[in-house]
């Protein structure tokens, strides 16, 4: 592996950046956080001091003009992803963009095209896909131990409904539970099956107290071979963070499917023939693994685990889910 480290710039001081992604990059083998920007320079400086980041900028443009930076992490509100990804690409920077990558598949495709034209890489930030437990789970499925897959179920819910100023509750900024947490069980099902869904049916609670974004959504995605994902996601419900794979001979349960805790909650359960076993997994920082996936691709030419085209496919599914929920109809993809 190359001894050079990727120099990252962070475009914004969002909570996910400070809570998880900046520490993840700093713990990665391939990268270092060299600069951070905010439209509020004082905020940028405070965050830089907190995380010992060498350079703070008072504008996003100034960060993109920093020729010493190799890659940019974008944790901005969803409606800004397209604009700043394209600007980062035009500045010659590789991009890790927070999920959902865009507001719809058309925007995502524009972003992919801009990055391809600029000769830079674009990755959607789904940290959970880089955790080794999903490789372990897929190996168990491929071994035939749980038989043929008959169904999947995923849920990701939390309650932040009282925080009415949250950007997640703003329609124009790309708010709503499908964008914020529904993307997780949906992307996990696509990853586990290695297939794209054929149709979506979703029912949602659009809250007038939260700019009529979907505060809760429940749905079914129809995959080939008569397999379905049932899922629910919500921002006004008790917390859950689970995924289950049901086979003809057994099942796999992931109790903390997307967020890891660095303890036994990260393990998963395999039940076959009434015998239940807990499979231990490594305690790793999945945000660091996410950064290293892009870092090794840039520095050493290692293929990305998930190309940018995957982000477009995932947004096609989200588009169908939102259309189904709004029209209360089954949508064929």
TrEMBL record:
The keyword Coiled coil appears for this protein: no
Supply the source organism for this entry: Paenibacillus baimaensis
Per UniProt, residues of the Gfo/Idh/MocA-like oxidoreductase N-terminal domain are 6-124
Keyword Metal-binding among UniProt keywords: no
| Sequence ranges assigned to domain GFO/IDH/MocA-like oxidoreductase in this UniProt record | 135-253
UniProt cross-references to Gene3D superfamilies, sorted A to Z:
Dihydrodipicolinate Reductase, domain 2, NAD(P)-binding Rossmann-like Domain
Q: Which family does it belong to?
A: Belongs to the Gfo/Idh/MocA family.
Q: What is the protein's name according to its record?
A: Gfo/Idh/MocA family oxidoreductase
Question: Which keywords does this chain's UniProt record carry?
Answer: Oxidoreductase
Quote the PANTHER family the UniProt record gives: OXIDOREDUCTASES, TRANS-1,2-DIHYDROBENZENE-1,2-DIOL DEHYDROGENASE
């Amino acid at each position: 592996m190359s001894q050079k480290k990727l120099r990252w710039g962070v475009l914004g001081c969002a909570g996910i950046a400070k809570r998880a992604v900046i520490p993840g990059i700093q713990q990665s083998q391939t990268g270092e956080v060299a600069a951070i920007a905010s439209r509020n320079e004082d905020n940028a400086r405070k965050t830089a001091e907190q995380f010992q980041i060498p350079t703070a900028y008072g504008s996003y443009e100034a960060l993109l003009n920093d020729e010493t930076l190799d890659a940019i992490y974008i944790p901005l509100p969803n409606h800004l992803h397209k604009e700043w990804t394209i600007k980062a690409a035009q500045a010659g920077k590789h991009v890790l963009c927070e999920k959902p990558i865009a507001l719809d598949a058309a925007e995502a495709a524009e972003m992919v095209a801009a990055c391809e034209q600029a000769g830079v890489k674009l990755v959607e930030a789904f940290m959970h896909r880089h955790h080794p437990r999903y490789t372990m789970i897929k190996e168990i499925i491929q071994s035939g131990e749980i038989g043929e897959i008959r169904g999947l179920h995923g849920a990701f819910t939390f309650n932040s409904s009282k925080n009415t100023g949250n950007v997640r509750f703003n329609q124009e900024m790309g708010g709503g539970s499908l964008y914020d947490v529904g993307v997780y069980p949906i992307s996990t099902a696509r990853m586990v099956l290695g297939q794209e869904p054929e149709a979506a049916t979703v029912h949602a609670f659009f809250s007038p107290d939260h700019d009529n974004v979907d505060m809760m959504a429940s749905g079914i995605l129809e995959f080939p071979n008569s397999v379905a994902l049932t899922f629910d996601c919500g921002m006004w419900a008790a917390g859950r963070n689970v995924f289950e794979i049901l086979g003809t001979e057994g099942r796999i349960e992931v109790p903390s499917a997307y967020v890891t805790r660095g303890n036994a909650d990260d393990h998963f359960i395999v039940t076959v023939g009434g015998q239940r076993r807990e499979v231990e997994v490594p305690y790793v920082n999945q945000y660091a693994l996410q950064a290293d996936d892009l870092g090794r691709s840039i520095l050493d030419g290692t293929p990305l685990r998930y190309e940018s085209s995957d982000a477009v496919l995932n947004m096609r599914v989200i588009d169908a889910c939102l259309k189904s929920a709004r029209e209360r109809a089954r949508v064929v993809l």
